[in-house]
Design a protein that fits this description.
Layout: E1 6-7, H1 21-30, E2 39-48, E3 58-61, E4 66-69, E5 75-82, E6 84-91, E7 94-102, E8 108-110, E9 113-115, E10 136-139, H2 155-158, E11 164-165, E12 175-176, E13 184-188, E14 191-192, E15 217-221, E16 235-240, E17 248-254, E18 257-265, E19 269-278, H3 281-284, E20 289-308, E21 312-337, E22 342-371, E23 374-400, E24 414-442, E25 446-470, E26 483-510, E27 513-524, E28 530-540, E29 548-559, H4 563-566, E30 580-595, E31 598-614, E32 617-620, E33 623-626, E34 632-648, E35 651-666, E36 671-672, E37 682-683, E38 687-689, E39 696-705, E40 712-721, E41 724-726, E42 738-740, E43 743-753, H5 764-769, E44 770-780, E45 788-795, E46 801-807, E47 812-821
Parallel strand pairs: 2-8, 2-9, 13-16
Antiparallel strand pairs: 1-4, 2-5, 3-4, 3-6, 6-7, 10-15, 11-12, 13-14, 15-16, 17-18, 17-47, 18-19, 19-20, 20-21, 21-22, 22-23, 23-24, 24-25, 25-26, 26-27, 27-28, 28-29, 29-30, 30-31, 31-34, 32-33, 34-35, 35-38, 35-39, 36-37, 39-40, 40-43, 41-42, 43-44, 44-47, 45-46
Amino acid sequence: MKRSSQPFFRQGFYSQAGFSFILFFNLFLCSLLSFAQEFSSIKGTVRSSRGELLSGVTVLATKSRIITQTDDEGAYLINSVPLNITLTFSRLGYKAVTIDLGLLPSRENIQDIILSPEVQSLDEINITEKFSGSNFKLVEPAKFSAYPSVSGSFESLIKNMPGVSANNELSSQYSVRGGNFDENLLYLNDIEIFRPLSISKGQQESLGFINPDMASNVRFSAGGFEARYGDKLSSVLDVRYSRPDSFSVKASAGFLGSSATLKLPFKGSYVLAGVRNKRNQDLLERQNLRGNYKSKFLDYQLLYKQDIGTKFNVSLFGNYNTGELDVVPGERETEFGTSDEVLKLYVNYDGLEATKYKTGVAAITFAYNFSNSSAIKWISSVTGLKESEDTKLLGWYSFDERDGGLDGGSNPSLLGRGSQYDFTENRVKSVIYNSELRIYKQYKRSFLEMGARFQNDQIRDNINEYVALDSTSFSSPGGGNWIYSDIIDDETDISINRINGFLQNTFSLNPYLTFAAGIRANYNSFTKETLISPRLSFMYYPGNSERFLLRFSGGSYVQPPHYKELRNYDGSLNPRAKSQRSFQLLSGADYKFNGLGTKLKFTSEVYYKFLSRLTPYKTDDLKVRYFSDQESKGYAAGADFSLSGNFARDLESTFRLSYMKTEEDIKDDFYLTGGPGIPGAAVRPGYLKRPTDQRINLGILFQDRLLQNPTYKVHLNLLFASALPTGPAGSQRYQDVFKIPAYKRVDIGFSKDFADQDSRRIPAFIKKYFQSLSAHAEIFNLLNNKNTASYLWLKDARSVQYAVPNYLTFRKFNFRIIAELKSR
């Protein structure tokens, strides 16, 4: 879709639900007024030195503080700019061009630009954030290839962003400012992407959705996002696949996976195609559960766009993502406890765990440009998910204070022995239909957009699962003293219709202040609620300085329940479920300065979220299970700080620190003191730590080059996240008095690009055929920390309960090669 000039700042300053609509429309009308000063407009196209039209070129009019990007046809348009302006054209991989212009008044001026390629290495990470009108951070997808990532998913790079916390390197899921995994939005070219419902462990999760080799632009917001984005409480990840500059073939292969990407630009169309696979066996076989692992994770993506005439185009997108993990456990040996009392758990297993996930997405988008200042887009998609879990696993266990075993003999240190049987036979099928219409209109000093969407969710869920425990002896089902718990036997067939829409206007009040206002409405047929969400924001440059930026935003967010939020622990649906709500206030500042021998950028943001009508939940590894028949209120408050700079050429290093506190008060919850035959009193627990109450998050991404040979690079990633509250499965929230220990991890990678122009000697064959050819050696979990994903809860003969940790991955070496062919 051809998109016209947009002011630099687009973000929401969110008021409360009762914010006056009169103020909104007055501000909207003010944005349409003309100003006394003489203004003009300028347009043109941007091409490469080979004559290819370049999309995604940033065009900045410095004196008017208006910024835009070229569309898929390489065209740009800037309205309402002073007659004397300076334009800067920049794009990754090309030399920036800056020109001073004197424009003719009251007419369109034409200025075409040619950009020359800039030879540079693309195999290192570069997270950059431009001053923009929203709380979005720009992430450079082309730089992901050097990032040392166990999961192989681009989302692992998002875990280094301020406000984000994660405790599982195997997963692409993350928590943002006190929210859980289900509160994050993901868009591709304005298509909302949905994820599987049943994934419970990181080792089961397939590849993340984003293919970094196909992405041209990625933006992330940890809160305060605009009305144009949907109805979730925490974050937005906005991904763009767009027209390539030239023919490209890129492939990678390593111990943990491989990928291949093809980009084909034509005169009036283009094709992007990518395939990725991941293998987890080498990682999982080194966990504390020894056994036979068989995993297969695949992702196929295809985007085709065709111009039909000069104003109309159509694009087709398809995705097939599948994950399969079969585990035949053998035995498990786990040490746990304290330094004063080291306990050991031994388990022998008999049985099988098998999980399968298949996701398919098909989407079609029609875009029509009425003129250079107005356009319409119609997006329709269908997502199908098919998931299955099969577990029939019997384990005989014993745990003691020193070396012991399952020999059944006399052991004075034996604390307990018993048997546990896990049974799961679950099937989930869901189909989600979407159809959305969006309209865009550029005025002299404002950009108006609006949209309306219809969505239908069809979900069929068959749940049959239970856990049986005999804590007295080794036994098999049918004998012994078995106690059954977590019993669910339910079948659900549900269909929910959803209607939502938004109206948003972004405009410049003066060269130093940009303002955005939007409103969003949604309705769903299950809760039968009509909810309104006003959102507002503004950006201010004190003293017209490009070094300093102030940002303020606030507004209302709602999250209508999806299927998981509707389901109780026993599998039944809560017919009285309501939408969760959040009122957010955010304030941020960005400052650029020189220091430590380079240009640095300091970013800070403080926020407060008032949360109401929350649905309490518990987490176990990646499984989020809701108490959908309960309701709570709460808050999340915190601050994020980051400092970034290029301490080595073209390699950005980032240091970030986040502090966050989140609590909730569950309505009408209480417990009784005393015991059998002992009088007790009712106690109300009050505010409790939420499952995501992780106070401190620290991240360091440091990159450097060798002084004597700068083609050799090092990439160091350090993460620290403080402890999380947890408790036994099925227990009430006030019983979550245990802690998952702090997450501590260090990954390091070393890379060498044999086609780098800094190389002392490039072999003729590589110079002729390869744009880049790099080798990467990585050590994951360099310090071999024992990080905990979740707990196995066991009782001894005296009914004393023990939390046995399920550890994540240990130290692992990886090697991979990445090759990109030169275009002809």
